[in-house]
Amino acid sequence: MHSAVCWEKHIATSTAGTVQVTGFDPLFQGLTDLLNDASRRGEISPARLTPVVLEVLHALIIKRILLETRNLTTKDITEMIDEVLLPLLVTKA
Predict the structure, then answer these.
(1) Half-sphere exposure for 10 (CA within 13 Å, toward CB)
(2) Mapping DSSP to helix (H, G, I), strand (E, B) and coil, where does residue 72 land?
(3) Which of these, 3, 50, 72, 84, has the minimum number of CB atoms within 10 Å of its CB?
(4) 53 or 11: which carries more pLDDT confidence?
(5) How confident is the model at residue 19 (pLDDT cuts 50, 70, 90)?
(6) CA–CA distance, 28 with 49 (Å, rounded to integer)
(7) Rounded to 5 degrees, what are φ and ψ at 10?
(8) Using CA atoms, how far apart are residues 81 and 75, in angstroms rounded to an integer?
């Protein structure tokens, strides 16, 4: 999926001086949909799929793209899934 995503960064500064990032919503919605599908299939617990867990993943993506100013690699995505997302979602047996 990630290779088909066209990354485009848009940064706008509001009058209050805060930075708003747009253009990530399709990616975030796609990730959320994938995780919800996995939850419905019983692969991850729906109780663990909280807004905070999704926020952590979104924040890491934004950090790597905006602050490191490079495109995500397969290695980046694998690290995010294996080292951050799955430990937050999967309960130990």
Answers:
(1) 7
(2) coil
(3) 3
(4) 53
(5) low
(6) 14
(7) -130, 120
(8) 10
Residue reference for tokens 């919800």: 36
What is the 3 state secondary structure string of 28-70? HHHHHHHHHHHHHCCCCCHHHCCHHHHHHHHHHHHHHHHHCCC
Using the predicted structure, report yes or no on whether residue 7 has a pLDDT greater than 70. Answer: no
> pTM of whole model > 0.90?
no
Among candidates 35, 40, 30, 33, which has minimal Cα distance to 89?
35
Contact indicator for 32, 26 with CB cutoff of 8 Å: no
At 47-80, the pLDDT tens digits run 888 888 888 888 888 888 888 877 888 898 888 8
Angle, vertex CA 90, rays to CA 88 and CA 91, nearest 5: 105
Length of the chain: 93
